[in-house]
What we know:
The complex is a heterodimer of chains A (535) and B (306). Chain A has 535 residues and is of the alpha/beta class. Chain A has helices at 46-54, 80-86, 98-101, 108-119, 124-137, 143-148, 156-168, 186-203, 214-220, 238-243, 248-256, 322-329, 352-359, 379-389, 394-407, 424-436, 454-471, 482-488, 506-511, 516-524; strands spanning 4-12, 21-30, 35-39, 63-70, 73-74, 91-94, 174-178, 206-211, 223-228, 231-237, 273-285, 295-307, 311-316, 337-342, 345-346, 362-365, 442-446, 474-479, 491-496, 499-505. Chain A has 20 helices and 20 strands. By secondary structure, chain B is mainly α. In chain B, a hairpin with a 5-residue loop joins strand 1 (68-73) and strand 2 (79-84).
Amino acid sequence: MSVLDVRDLTIALxxxxxxxxxxxxxxxxxxxxxxxxxxxxxGSGKSVIAQGVMGLLPKGLPVTGGTILLExxxxxxxxQRRLRELRCTRMSMVFQEPMTALNPVMxxxxxxxEVLRExxxxxxxxxxxxxxxxxxxxxxxxxxxxxxxxxxxxSGGQRQRIMIAMALVLEPALLIADEPTTALDxxxxxxxxxxxxxxxxxxxxxxxxxxHDFGVVAEIAHRVAVLRxxxxxEFGARDEVLKHPRHDYTRMLIGSxxxxxxxxxxxEAGAPVVLATRxxxxxxxxxxxxxxxxxxxAAVDVTLEVRKGQTLGIxxxxGSGKSxxxxxxxxxxxxxxxxxxxxxxxxxxxxxxxxxxxRRRVQIVFQDPYRSLNPRRTVLEAVIxxxxxxGVTRAAAVERARKxxxxxxxxxxxxxxxxxxxSGGQRQRICIARALAMEPELLIADEAVSALDVSVQAQVLALLEExxxxxxxxxxxxxHDxxxxxxxxxxxxxxxQGRVVEYGPAAQVFGxxxxxxxxxxxxAAPGRDFAFGAS
Amino acid sequence: xxxxxxxxxxxxxxxxxxxxxxxxxxxxxxxxxxxxLLMIVVAGxxxxxxxxxxxxxxxxxxxxxxGQAGEIMTLDGxxxxxxxxxxxxxxxxxxxxxxxxxxxxxxxxxxATALLALxxxxxxxxxxxxxxxxxxxxxxxxxxxxxIPAILLAIALVALWRASVLTVVLAIAITEIPRVTRLVRxxxxxxxxxxxVEAAISLGSPTWKIMFGHILPNCxxxxxxxxTYICASAILVEAILSFLGxxxxxxxxxxxxxMAEGRVQFMAxxxxxxxxxxxxxxxxxxVNILGDGLRDTLDPKMAKRV
Lengths: 535, 306
């Protein structure tokens, strides 16, 4: 008997949505001791299916057909009471964002205790012992202290471990993990994946693992279900699906995943340096009258070089200072030390007035396409704003905007529309057009493709590549994703805790990493043994 | 197959109703809006609604009950037969005419105060939120203003100047400015961190353009809502000031003045208080309902917070 058997599951969407059903006749099963990955891009309905199984669907999304069997019991239309009994005891869920999934005003132990109080008749001493056992089992250091801590005192990875402990403390038959590692750094992600794998194997739990990341799939899945717009397009064993995908969509998705092998494009040797930093530092100081002064060094002694027509990648985990460096170079924040040399001129300490004419030469594209464009201004206004600031006439600026829209593969007619009418990938193209309208020498992409689905990411990466080549732009590419870095970078700087720990040609850094941290980073990259994007 | 055709992203764009459509569908906006519109029409068409000059009085028609007929002398010395729909006060003035003309004053005070408070609050809030060096000094002044009870401050200000519509509007607006400033400042503080503002900085846009072109348009929805609340509260405060005898001069017909005048004889002639009271309540309620509706449709985040 399967742990979970989903047959012809259909979940309706409210009227006026872009399609009729969030999930349409979806069939799959999870066996005991098996990890099934549900993969899909945003809007594919993967989270809705998980919520459907847990009985957590909002009223607007009713199950209109099919059955959900949990260990043979039909729970499709089970009562709230029955579902409450089942949750945690026979099925549990781990969410993407552990900070919001945990109650911030209750200690971690208290929250674990609540689960036990609700579902068992154990004495306080037994509960206490069980809590310490499970905390030890999810490999948290110093369980005694962990149990007494509050969620904000823990790191993201530790919080996710507490979530997993909470989900598994009653040994459920089914664990649903909804993007549990997406908010985590790659090294933490590797540890959490390992943990889920170990626990699942030891307890024989069936796991339904929801993810958008094929690297993760390659790492942990036994079987894979691929969703596209609410329809299951492919379901099969991992190697079968990843190596011999039958559906075009699966093939396209897998083909869009960048490989970890650096590209082989030779970098031009004598190209002029567009931008260089010398000993760039940024220290944040807590200015307070009463409290003790706190200092945080976000970037320490960063020395880099970007040459014309080449791409320098800055790779690092969150908090490594890579965005700080970018923001110092654009002078969105003021560096606290060192030089930023733009074409030989130090702009690190220039006054706002002296800096203005130079701003044109360095442009930046941000991570979040939904917040990078002013919702109250049309695309045209966004794209021509920069040129107008530098004295280009309106007619000439509009003409330039129309040309740029074609360059970024968008219909020039879309200039008159508002940002909310575009998808994330389209908005990112608009942001690129806006940056290019300034005719910059250096384009900084600060995690510019991180928020995009993998197929869209591939398109935007290809676009950036083409633009760099055609306009011979210098590019500074900031990313946490080693695969993306391998695709676009000529040189790579690896940052950790504000410092550049390794810096060199991409082939050398990827091929023979010297620093221990770089090696750890590569070790942690999910699905590193799997050749993606080969097709 | 081609990447572009297989990629599902374009299918995910949410279709959104325009703000106007949402407003039109909202029950509160409709009810509050039409009630307010009615009041504005009444105020505008006051002379056409069977009223007499609200300052006319006739000793022969004192303290008439609602619906009684009586006579009233015009300024030309002509004697008019007039039905006192809402009765008359102790000077023999027609309450109906005074209430209807009072609508003008109340709406004028409400709307003018809201506009004035918003105008100053927006400028001060933008400066305080965006120009960090101004923040400390400005907000301390605002804190100081907020520390004085609003009504007390308004009374003091009106007492300081000569009482007129302008001074009353100014006095009430000054008490509201700190609240608007705080609201705008908090909005600016979050909007200034948005990537589109940083993009504008790197596009070389001058500071004033960023403040008024990028940040301000994104504050409009909550400000519109705040404006209606200020309007409602200004109408009330004006009535309170007049009732206390520190607002507009008693010869100007305002709801507060009518009620102040009728207070003495309240037990014997309750209509003196009842009719202006009803108008005041209905107007303030209409403005508040409209504000709630605006908040629900334009600013769902705020609706959850409040």
